[in-house]
Amino acid sequence: MTTVLIVASNVPAQPAVLTEALERFKGRGARVAVACFFDAAELEIDPALAEVRSFAVPKEQIDKRLRTALGRAPANRKIWLHAQRSGWLMKWARTADLLVAIDPRSVHTVWEMAQRNVAASACYGLVPALRALDAGVSAPVTTRLERQVSATAARGVRGARRAAISSAKTTLRKATGQKVMGTPAGAWLWTRAVSAPKIPDRYRSKLAARVHDSAVRAGRHAEAARAATAAVNRISNAATRAELLTKAAQSELAVGRVPERLHDAISAQLTLADSLLRKDRKRAATALSNAWSLASNRVLHFDRLSSPLVDDPAGYLAPFRASEAARLLSAPRGRAVPAAPGPSGRPLRILLATLINDNFLHEIRQRYEAMPNVEVRFLDLDDDPARRSLARSGSSVIEHKLAGHTPYGEKIEEWLRPHLDWADTVFIDWCQATAALFTMPDPGDTRIVIRLHSFEAFNFWPHLVDFSRVDDVVFVSDHLRDLSTAVLPQLLGAQAPRLWVIDNAMDLQRYARPKPAQARFNLGMVGVGSVAKDPRWTIEVLRHLRRQDERYQLLLIGSDLNAKTSVAAKQYADLLKRDLAELEPSGAVQRRGQTDDVPAALTEVGVIVSSSVRESFHCGLVEGAASGAVPVVRDWPYFASGAHGARTLFPADWVVGSPAQAAERILAATATEEDWRRSGQAAAEHTLKTWDWTVTQTAFDRLFLTD
């Protein structure tokens, strides 16, 4: 009886064809097994026709060695790695007379089996298998002997080659590993080896990236920079240079450092984008996306206490302004007609649009929904499950901007055009994806208004917005406007939109609640979830105070600092943990966690502190001041040297330059209960007169209801 083994990597597209072939095999007296690299239950085959089993190793049974091998193997070899673990399958493979692959991915597995069972015939496809069966599948003894010798030799060569390659890779990994690079001799050797002559660019790049990464992790940053520089100077291919410099920068960012050659990496990607602009716009878009990913990495701006963008906006963004491809992203395309004046004879139609975050729209929405002469619609792009992915693809926007017309752009037009046609005014909260998408199509005579809060100024999205199609841009503070115009020159000039500074919409009267006398000694922070809030600065203030009076304590209201965003954030969080471990046991610091009732939580706070390195406005501080807590505001370092900042936003006596000055202000304001309540009342009165919604709503009326 002839034995046939059929191997299938996927469920056959036409199972009936397989069933028919099995019936024909049976009619010829063959005994058949079907080995499946999927759940055998998906093949509804009569057991009388064939024995059907799965041979994929279950995930829970995959050991470390197999997992490593699977991770390195190409797709077709993965099937063979599973197959040779199945005792049932390998028994069939050794005894079968005919081995059959019925799809492309199973061919390699059948070939490997044929190298071990040289007496068997092997073929690809069911029809050739039936022909082989009809012709007779056994080979002459001499032919089988030749096959055996050839197959054994081939397996030996392949095994030796794989062993040699594996050994070489292991040796290289160890030789360039962190331990070796941590020694002066190892670092000296490898930083020079990467610049050796006659090494092909692609191998030099991989070796240099490996050496650089190991040196960075070993703490040898100077040697890492030298290795990358030496290798780059030897590489002529622009794409390879850009790839190596980008990998080197990413390696340093991964350990929380500002890369030594960050600008070189950004410039290399932009040079590559410019060179590809007319030949391959898709690859040019990828290079541009890589450049912006580096420039807006959160380690540079959010997870540290300083930002190179704030230090020198023009210098930091100079490579983008010099790049032809980057300039195309924000190139003004204009609009066919200007925005129309407000309608007569019907309500004004306002569309409030955002992506996920509508935290700052509640009061605005309620006010204009209640007006009889205004019709309001709300759009969150994330609420459309079929299209939300379109709003999260910065690379697609970049590619569209370079090409001018893409299928992606057509989808955005189809999605947003009905909203643009309906609205008289589109108010887009957050200058991010929503703003970029709404300015891709010509808005017609619809007025476009964008509000930029803070984090967007450090992100790439505003650079994808066509501001020649925007009528008004709203900022929540003067210092944010100053930074944004320095970062985005298109906000100034002939085709620039009107610029407004309008405070956040806040209902502050609900925070006025009685405070107990013991609140006088309680410092409070509302929101400490990010490094930018810098709670360690407030802890230093607390230390100054407790040297004078141990009744002072700090209440942290809100979620703990998120240490998972980057290594830089974790480094800050680790320092904060040490502070808390020192002060929490005595009750000097208390974490109150997240709360849905901030006004109630603030009744325990006698002094509200803003210790941030940057804020656009700081609602938490203003809410605390509205509650009657004494406000103490650090002169936010990101803006302290500018024309506007905390000192121009708040009364001068609220703002301090150091923890010592903060402690002096607090001691004076809380010297007695009467002093404390008087200072808190004065702060609350100023806050309500300046920033309560009853005051700021008039500015929004001017924005929305006047032409």
TrEMBL record:
Key words, A-Z: Transferase
GO molecular function: transferase activity
UniProt xrefs under Pfam families: Glyco_trans_1_4
Protein name (database record): Glycosyltransferase involved in cell wall bisynthesis
Organism name: Micromonospora inyonensis
